[in-house]
Amino acid sequence: MSAKPGHDPLYDAAIVGLGPVGAIFANLLAKAGLSVAVVERTADIYDKPRAITLDHEALRVLQAIGLGDFMEQAIAPHNGSHYLGVDGEIIKIFDPMPPPYPLGWIPNVTFVQPDVEQALRDKLVQYPQVDVFLATAGVALEQDERAVTLTARRERGDEFPIHARYLIGCDGANSFVRKQLGIGLDDLAFDEWWMVVDTLTSDPAKRPARSFQYCWPSRPGTFVPGPRNLRRWEIKLLPGEDPEAAGAPDNVVTLLKGFTDISDLTIWRSAVYRFHALLGQRWRDRRVLLMGDAVHQTPPFLGQGLCAGIRDAVNLAWKLSLVLRGDADETLLDSYEIERKPHVRAVVASAKEFGKIIGELDPAVAAERDVQLRADLKAGKAETIRQKFIPDLVSGLIAPDAVLAGRLFVQPHVRAPDGRTCRLDDLLKPEFAIVTATAEPLAWLSDASRAAWQHLAGERVVVTASGESSDTNGILSVVERDGLFADWMQQHGAAAVIVRPDRYVFGAAGTAGELNMLVGQLLQNLSAGH
Prior knowledge:
alpha+beta, eight-stranded mixed beta sheet
């Protein structure tokens, strides 16, 4: 995976960092037909798990780059969490969301990170217009109004320039790109040392198939069952414990024994981490943008660290594609930070809340907490679906007053025109789409709206409850399996919905006038920047 030396092309995008976020972003751009250069400091994939949970939004993005079938085999359901109080009894519950699943995937799953990273790279190699430079680091960057030049240095010491119209830093918490731009991080006031221990069990049935949060002041911890025989514990270090000494192998064993009988376990990896809550002050400097851990870090108590980076990737990819092909003004790229930053801030706030519940070290405060949470649970006041803590978009490229604006579009299982059953997105291109429950609302489009929609390469889709699936006259008609889309549209009184390429809703319409107005609004936003 390396470029031919001696030629000096202008890439559409250069990406620094080929972790999961960089690899997903590169795949999304390549699938949109863009030329991409990627530099990655290390030669090999890190072979131990780091992230262990994904949500349905992240799975949908992996599906979009062609890894749906692979992920089906690679994941295990996350069967919810039980929070245990000081007395070992339940104080809080997260239950798995019941089917039919709104996005077409189990809402929370576990996975093995190195396997997924390998699949992402295998996919990337298939694109001739992508050059990947491994064992290569970015050492300098400069930009003018036309392009960015990244100076890259191979391990053996030789340097070469990479020219691209845009450069994206996906290079992690110690981001070289962020430091080059002099962008600071706001501290969202969370700072704790935790040890993460990944083990392989020889007796997979030995423990329950759900997560536990041990909300014990004497030693807070978390248990997460991964796919196959992977079992993880996260264990909080107490004040005064030396993070260096804590990670010594004999101490890891001692701490682990405080949570479980370890006779069936082999330790795969243990690491001591400082869990932080940080948010980049700016996400864009002209032609350079930041994503993933380079621009935000969240404590892991919602399992949203990697998911947040994947949301960044899918949010920026289609916008960059539209700008580069001339279908949108480059001010569209400003909506990336406008949309993603408040979203990340909200997710971090929730993760901190759960971190506070789990990590409370004062026994008296913990006892009060248990009484309060138990009462909430008993009274039915506690939110038990984890996904409800993931917000919608509140600003940016959405129709501010329209129904459903900023919500994630549902993904029903449908019968394709060729007779197979699949997830709806598998039949769509990564473009805008107008989706309706009957053919009639598509006839509402004025000639001007229809022409503009075609120019934008927008799709027109009808999802019905019965009948035949077909693809004629530029309209895709499919029959859905579970009534998911029909119920959703009915619930919101919508006849037509305009869906963005990242499957967030621009806005929904109930009448012909509303639909044409939304199309006009969208085109205006794309052309003018706002």
